[in-house]
Amino acid sequence: MHILLTNDDGIDAPGLSALRDSVARLTHLGVRYSIVAPDRQRSECGHSVTTRRPLRMFQKAPREWAVDGTPVDCVRLAMTKLAPDAQLVLSGVNDGGNLGVDLLMSGTFAAAKEAFLRGLPAVAISHYRHPQRPRTWDHVPAWIYDLLTEAITHVPQGPFLRNVNLPAIDPGDSPPRQICDVDDSPMDVQFMDLESQGFQFTSNYQNRPRKMGSDVAHCFAGKLTISHLHEPLARQ
Description:
- This protein has one domain (2-235): 3-Layer(aba) Sandwich (Stationary-phase Survival Protein Sure Homolog, Chain: A), CATH 3.40.1210.10.
- The chain has helices at residues 14-24, 71-82, 107-117, 140-154, 215-220, and strands at 2-6, 32-38, 57-61, 64-67, 88-95, 122-127, 161-166, 177-179, 190-193, 199-202, 224-230.
- Helix content is 23%, strand content 25%.
């Protein structure tokens, strides 16, 4: 199986390295991978695309390209030119949660959504962070190994779109998994008056609104959350 890896934090981001290491553990299943990712940080760009100029890319390593565009640009370019035989798309691991209405602005999720819209199974993976927890990555391959093997198993059943968030708990712990819906609670809108400089959006992510049983509530409670946005008819 050929898997496409991408993200929105940029090709040099540690989260993408953690995702690469995670997929490397699956070589016994006949897995190979390609990486097509933005050449720099493109967080919170949503489903934006580049249409008014040429996209430029450079190859960093065999089957690994950096593109001066958005995550959606990367998926489009990969599926048409660089990795047209990819069978599954993994986007992440984002440095920060993509929970609830975050999906509307998340470049990580947009990359997975673009792949799904073009007929491929896709999983967006993010890591919620808390200021009182270590910001480490070595534990990620162990945390998502089962999740990735299950995704590979389900590929023959047809396209699916899933959003996964890892919790901010001790890296040595193994988080319980929770399938749940995406929270539709709107974010609090607050702005700081910077006088001559205008207004700056501010928020307390840990105190954001949430509904019981939603991805926000479960991930904040220490669970690895999985939201099935679209599943094949065969599994419904």
